[in-house]
């Protein structure tokens, strides 16, 4: 009996994936999981979006615990900035309460937010949609991704969202004020 308890305890201990661990490779949320397919045909797990803090910061459930996600490659206007509320509402309309896929490299920012792209169940990349709709800048300080750069140029040329303003202020400059 003691041996059986030891084996069960060991299995529980070594099978845990805890969100605070920076070394975990795969998330699993038993209460809200769904299976998704990715382009690489690997199986991943979907996570429920339970909070939208602003256009580029979300809360999802991982292992029944909340994990804050910071969208990779982009920076949305701050809440009090022009289009800040619209960016948050746009993101909320697309994914609040929905299951999403997280495309990340297990990297966290200084606030322990997981840096990730959010992919909707229909395959839409939320990060790219925000840039494409003029509701986010390509965050070139932290991203050299050419696709995001091209989406920003397209949105600027079409004068959509933030690019309809005469002199839009980048969020990183707004935060310095």
Automatic annotation (TrEMBL):
Cited PROSITE patterns: TNASE_3
Every TNase-like domain range: 43-165
Pfam families: SNase (PF00565)
InterPro entries: SNase_OB-fold_sf, Staphylococal_nuclease_OB-fold
SUPFAM superfamilies in the record: Staphylococcal nuclease (SSF50199)
Domain of life: Bacteria
PANTHER family in alphabetical order: EBNA2 BINDING PROTEIN P100, SERINE_THREONINE-PROTEIN KINASE 31
Name recorded for this polypeptide: TNase-like domain-containing protein
Keywords of the record: Endonuclease, Hydrolase, Nuclease
GO MF annotation terms: endonuclease activity; hydrolase activity
SMART domains with a match to the protein in the record: SNc
């Amino acid at each position: 009996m003691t041996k059986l308890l030891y084996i069960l305890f060991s299995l529980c201990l070594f099978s845990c994936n805890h969100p605070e661990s920076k070394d975990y490779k795969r998330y699993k949320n038993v209460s809200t999981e769904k299976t998704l397919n990715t382009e690489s045909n690997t199986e991943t797990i979907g996570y429920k979006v339970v909070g939208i803090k602003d256009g580029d910061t979300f809360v999802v459930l991982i292992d029944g615990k909340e994990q804050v996600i910071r969208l990779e490659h982009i920076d949305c206007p701050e809440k009090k900035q022009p289009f800040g509320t619209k960016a948050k509402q746009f993101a909320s309309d697309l994914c609040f309460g929905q299951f999403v896929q997280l495309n990340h490299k297990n990297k966290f920012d200084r606030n322990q937010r997981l840096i990730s792209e959010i992919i909707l169940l229909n395959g839409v990349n939320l990060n790219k949609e925000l840039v494409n709709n003029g509701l986010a800048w390509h965050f070139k300080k932290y991203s050299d991704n050419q696709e995001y750069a091209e989406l920003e140029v397209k949105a600027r040329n079409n004068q959509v969202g933030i690019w309809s303003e005469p002199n839009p202020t980048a969020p990183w400059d707004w935060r310095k004020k």
